[in-house]
Amino acid sequence: MLEMFFNPRAVAVIGASESPGKLGNQVLANLISSGFPGQVYPINPRAEKILGLPCFKSVLDVPGPIDCAVVIVPAKFVSGVLEESGKKGIKGAIVITAGFKEAGPEGAALEQDLLCIAEQYDMRVIGPNCLGIISMPIPMNASFASGTPELGTIAFTSQSGALGAAVLDYALAESIGFSHFMSLGNKADVDEVSLLDAWRDDDSTNVIIAYIEGLKDGAAFIEAARKTARNKPIVAVKSGRTASGSKAVSSHTGSLAGADTAYDAAFNQAGVLRADSVQELFDWSTAFAYQPLLQGNRIALVTNAGGPGVMATDALERNGLVLATLTPETEAALQGVLPAAANIHNPVDVLGDAAADRYGVALDIVLKDPGVDGVLVILTPQSSTEIEATAEVLVERSKTATKPLLGCWMGEEKIVHGTRILAKNRVPSYPFPERAVAAFGAMYRYHSWLQQPEMTVESFEADKKAVAELFAKVREDGRNTIGDTEAQAILKAYGITTPQSAVGATPDEAAKLAAEIGFPVVIKIASPDILHKSDVGGIIVGVQNEAEAREAFGTLVERAKAHMPDATIWGAQVQEMVADAREIIIGLNRDPQFGPVIMFGLGGIYVEVLRDVAFRVAPMSRLQAEQMVESIRSYKLLTGVRGQAPADLEATVDTILRVAQLVVDFPEIAELDINPLLVREQGKGAVAVDMRLILS
Q1: Model confidence pLDDT, tens digit, residues 152-205
Q2: Are the beta carbons of 576 and 542 closer than 8 angstroms?
């Protein structure tokens, strides 16, 4: 699909330079020094030879075919050289030049011209404003990065070229190998979705990692990531978590950053592991790249120090892992080979005077235990510690182990040669137990995601025509807001249970309706202009008789006029009072990247005070909706505490799925709140008693 970039036979460097300090010289030098086996053609109308290679005035002058062009000319000339490249039959262009969308309106216009020419000639474009690309299986370094990484199985894409350059330098120092490196820049054409599709079945890649500032098409990303994550893990860092960070992203590469909660939800559903830092990105990806996948959450610790073992044990619980319980046979075998003072229970303490061979025999025994899914080996530099030899022991066991082995060589000056041995031999090592355990945690989360069935979306019968007609009427009235009075019809159209409800235009009508529904009732102000009724004192609960109903009508109208004199008042909405139920909120916010993002949490005061909510992107499966409900901190309040009966979670999930279908069916719904959804005891259903909706 992107073969012209990953395995080109010939590359042209348009804007190649004789001056060592210029990008055109650095890119050409990298291509040559990386050992690229294909043809390299420098393009510069004012030079005869560059770095010993014959130079051509234009790609049109090159006698042979060219698969890929690296473009390093001023922005105003890029469209012209792409036109020539298209005529030459070049199918891939890496535009390193900056000065496009990220520079303002004029640059954005130049970028659009670039894209139009590429589409005309069926040409794929990486960039503009990028560092370039590296493909190590060839090998080929078509970037201006200072250095070429080792061959490995990690494919890395970065929207930021500068960050990519720093990461490459870090990888060189840590002996981390790459299969591919791709700097995307402004992503005029090739983006993360393109790369996920290309790397999904790439035999040279075992792990995909990404630095992301923003996505062009969130729905396409979710789909591509979900498919790819079934084949290999994806680990991503998404910058712009905070409001100020998001603003910085927009000014940096012209990306429109979506709400951070939407990215969390999308990554969760697509099987993408979200790291909080570049450090975590590599902590996790090296574990995936170098070790077998963790098949469970039971971890054994082998250590020569008790304190770090305790630290690791604490970290296990925080990461959803457990300390493995060793079998009696394992403990007996350990007792037979370790000193009497050693601890044969997990964590296995081989004592501070342990030499490499003692680590080796303990490892051999622990790895055979059927109740152990992974092993963390901790070493602290003590007077008898054989640091390098113990590293060699871990390397040897790692070659044959079917369970993941991670190292934690604690210290700095004394252990550096041991960690280099581990790095050179592709055994992940971490300076602190918490980082090693976090890597195991990422492996277990990915394993758990793989166990989930393929996503299927349920479809409910719905009266779409009724909803469309209501929306049309609202538009005709010059409104885009829909309050609870009208919203009841929308909920009913999608099979969501609502309380008995009707609007009375006068006090007497309200009293009559209340008697028909049955006391006690709730009476609310009915107005298309008042969405937040509680803000104006527009709700009275527990109305017991007709006299109270008439009085409530007058009170509500008086309060509404006092707060909003110009509001249209339809009267009062009389509603069945639902008792003995938990308050839930289900909401929608339409994210710029991912579309409809559904929110779930405890309603009423809880959502405002605790902000204990969860998010998922619609559409979603029933399992994803269940996981959303279970993920809030106060979930146990729904399952029943201190003798309280469990809430009807099946009805809750059912309502979430129906709302998800509604907002997918009608993209014009910009915001929606059901607050509260009153959830009765298990088996007794849920009732949506108040809803507001805003059309785009």
Answers
A1: 999 999 998 889 999 999 999 899 999 999 999 999 999 999 999 999 999 999
A2: no
Interatomic CA distance for residues 572 and 550, integer angstroms: 10
Identity of the residue numbered 547: A
Roughly what angle, to the nearest 10 degrees, separates helices 192-199 and 218-229? 20
Q: How far apart are CA 611 and CA 593, in angstroms?
A: 23
Q: Are 118 and 83 in contact (CB under 8 A)?
A: no
Which residues have CB under 8 Å from 85's CB, separation 6+? 12, 14, 59, 66, 69, 71, 93, 121, 123
Helix/strand/coil for 108: helix
Calpha distance 147→172 (Å, rounded)? 8
Residue 584 and residue 652 in contact, taking contact as beta carbons nearer than 8 Å = yes
Instruction: Report the distance separating Cα 350 and Cα 382, nearest Å.
Output: 13
Closest CA to 669 of 560, 554, 591: 591
- E-state strands within 485-626: 501-504, 521-526, 539-543, 571-576, 582-591, 595-602, 613-617
Residues 132, 125: Cα–Cα separation, whole Å: 11
Count the alpha carbons within 13 Å of 452 in the hemisphere toward its beta carbon.
Answer: 21
Give the distance, in angstroms, between the CA of residue 368 and the centroid of all CA atoms in the same chain: 36
pLDDT, one tens digit per residue, over 378-411 is 999 999 999 999 999 999 999 999 999 999 999 9
